[in-house]
Recover the amino acids of this structure.
């Protein structure tokens, strides 16, 4: 399976609580729901297309707990997003979680990068990381992510957890595709290319 990191981001890189003010209030976050005003039919089409390629989902503990609280209540069989999240295999990376009631779920503990590498060797299409910014960033730095998909909203949140922290490992990316919805969300797909290149700009003397 290919490992795909899929995130909703603000222009200032915040990934926390895009769906509602109550979605994730950890660390005192009070600005949740910033993606919602920008949803439209094009956004939903892209989201459905992306999630339609999933054969499993990988979460960090915090995101798993939030998703396991909310998504089982969204059990409309005609909803392709909810039906796949609720029905497909889920994996949660945690050294503290002992039970996972959102079936079918497997807890990954210990050497998480090693366990994820094992999952990638299994047959299938995509193992998708949704939310779980810290887990996603760590697996990207470890060279395990095959594709990065970002939905970037035209808003500066001004605080909250970011996907790419200031002390993160630098990674080069190659743009695969970009589409902008009528409400201004940019859907971007990238392929990691290893360490980024750096250079010095020199003005043309002529």
């Amino acid at each position: 399976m290919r490992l795909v990191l899929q995130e909703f981001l603000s222009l200032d890189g915040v990934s926390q609580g895009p769906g509602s003010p109550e979605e994730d209030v950890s660390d005192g976050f009070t600005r949740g729901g910033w993606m919602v005003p920008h949803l439209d039919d094009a956004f939903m089409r892209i989201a459905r297309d992306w999630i339609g390629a999933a054969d499993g989902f990988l979460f960090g503990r915090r995101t798993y707990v939030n998703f396991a609280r909310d998504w089982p209540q969204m059990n409309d069989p005609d909803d392709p997003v909810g039906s796949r999240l609720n029905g497909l295999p889920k994996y949660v990376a945690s050294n503290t979680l002992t039970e996972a009631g959102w079936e079918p779920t497997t807890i990954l503990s210990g050497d998480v990068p090693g366990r994820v590498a094992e999952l990638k060797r299994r047959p299938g299409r995509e193992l998708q990381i949704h939310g779980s910014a810290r887990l996603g960033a760590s697996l990207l730095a470890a060279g395990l992510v095959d594709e990065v998909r970002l939905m970037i909203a035209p808003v500066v949140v001004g605080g909250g957890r970011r996907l790419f922290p200031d002390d993160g490992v630098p990674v080069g990316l190659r743009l695969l595709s970009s589409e902008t919805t009528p409400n201004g969300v940019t859907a971007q797909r990238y392929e990691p290319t290893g360490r980024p290149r750096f250079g010095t700009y020199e003005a043309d003397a002529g």
User: Anything to note?
Assistant: Residues 41-51 form the longest helix (11 residues). The mean pLDDT is 94. The beta strands are 2-9, 54-60, 90-93, 105-108, 126-130, 147-152, 172-180, 186-194. The domain at 2-194 is CATH 3.40.430.10 (Dihydrofolate Reductase, subunit A).
